[in-house]
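Write out this protein's structure.
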Amino acid sequence: MLQLRPADYRLMPWKNGGGSTTEIAIEPQGASLGEPFLWRVSSATVAASGPFSAFSGLQRSLLLVEGVGFILDIEGQGRLRLKHPGQVVSFSGDAAVGATLIQGPCVDFGVISDPTQVRVTLQWLNLGREATLLVPAPTTLLYAPWGPVWVDPLDLELDSRECLRLDPADAAPELRLRAAFGTTPAVVVSIYPLS
């Protein structure tokens, strides 16, 4: 089990140089974008309209965290409007993708993965004071984009922009998630090996 904080993340330029992204976690740890990796979880500020980076042979999923959203023109899929926090869109890293901001900068959260090695799902949970049950995947990343999330039976709290990584050795039959106060979302990345 690893509780990651913003100070642990890596700020780096987009692969195409068009912006910057905050890398939250990558497997194998410490890998760069220039070498093979199984998966990478990051959050980026989209400050201007323009193309997304290409990731040949990989699969991409992303959701909107903050802002009014943007329109994605995805080669082979057409035009999609990403305008609701938590709305998930998936596409091939080989596809040419252009983003047009609807109104001002936005923040997204994304996963890039090798579809020949892992199956990845991305989920947005709206949490309140009542516990929401979550059955962890072999590797699970739980991210608190906005505010504190309480995680039982681990008895820990994730502050805003913190991430909890659970690997196979951390197996727990189920987690109970709730907002520490009021309501807040949680983003869940579930990673399943294919072999």
